[in-house]
Amino acid sequence: QVQLVESGGGLVQAGGSLRLSCAASGRTFSSLIMGWFRQAPGKEREFVATISWDGRSTYYSDSVKGRFTISRDNAKNTVSLQMDSLKPEDTAVYYCAADQDGVAAIATSQHQYEYWGQGTQVTVSS
Predict the structure, then answer these.
(1) Does residue 27 carry a pLDDT above 80?
(2) How far apart are CA 45 and CA 94, in angstroms?
(3) Residue 44 φ/ψ, nearest 5 degrees
(4) Among 39, 90, 98, 118, which is disulfide-ready with 45 (CB 3.0 to 4.6 Å)?
């Protein structure tokens, strides 16, 4: 079992920045592929970013590439999402997720993730 707890969401103006963090417990964190997803009102949950167990591989959705940065600290069992140049369309509930059975270095489909956090709200005002 893996427990995930997100933090760092809030209200920010367009063009601003936020940093989300996700604390993991319950299983060797360094063996997990980690990802961030988001869900806006009335829309399906979508992939945002993923990072390999060792942090060497990352992948982003086209909508956030160049603006968001995913990172992890295996010593602290945390994964972070630095969000810069935020836009109103980034408004959503952001979820941290863990993939314990990954056969590839990263995972972009929500169906590959077994564990999810409760989510944290990010609101970007125009």
Answers:
(1) no
(2) 9
(3) -80, 155
(4) 39
